[in-house]
Amino acid sequence: NAGVTQTPKFRILKIGQSMTLQCAQDMNHNYMYWYRQDPGMGLKLIYYSVGAGITDKGEVPNGYNVSRSTTEDFPLRLELAAPSQTSVYFCASIYEGTNTIYFGEGSWLTVV
Amino acid sequence: AQTVTQSQPEMSVQEAETVTLSCTYDTSESDYYLFWYKQPPSRQMILVIRQEAYKQQNATENRFSVNFQKAAKSFSLKISDSQLGDAAMYFCAYRGYGGSQGNLIFGKGTKLSVKP
Fold first, then answer.
1. Residues of chain B with C-beta less than 8 angstroms from the C-beta of A48
2. Residue-wise pLDDT tens for chain B (116 aa)?
3. Is A92 within 8 Å of chain B by CB?
4. Residue B8: closest CA among B25, B22, B26
């Protein structure tokens, strides 16, 4: 999964703090996604983007914001962190030609 | 909205035996894509197999094959000759087509254990 880079890999936040999870891909993919995965659960879609300047909400967008100013970058912003946002966050992009999904390695976030 | 359901939270199989993981989905679209992903404890997401809905032939990748029943909206994964390395979480996923390509939805997963 070298094509999708997520930073940071681990982060501990205090309640009420804000932070941005970075996601970048160098494959010129239009579609990008942010998911969260709670322990023992599947991936829930937070936000997605179909191209630069275009974003849309997924299943669980509350407490998050995104932007897509370039094709390469799709940062996820957490405002006023809450313990319920403790999770592993995955960024993904899709190569349309083969419908291949590329995942980042995940970002482990703990809110205390 | 589309949904993906995996009704088996956990499954167990003996090494070298065959196991089938279930997945059903709900959609009003006629064209879409379906996937099975494997997630080991490292949390890495590994593509197992992919199926285009317009293709009637079931996809196969070595020991992994699917039973795609479009009318029943069912997409089960069969693992033959199970190996210890197959132990992992398995997720079924749906992706829309055309204007719905933004929809990439995952099921809750099935935890597969392989007994030696």
1. 102, 104
2. 788 999 999 999 999 999 999 999 999 888 899 999 999 988 899 999 999 998 888 988 899 999 999 999 999 999 999 999 999 999 999 998 766 566 789 999 999 999 99
3. yes
4. B22
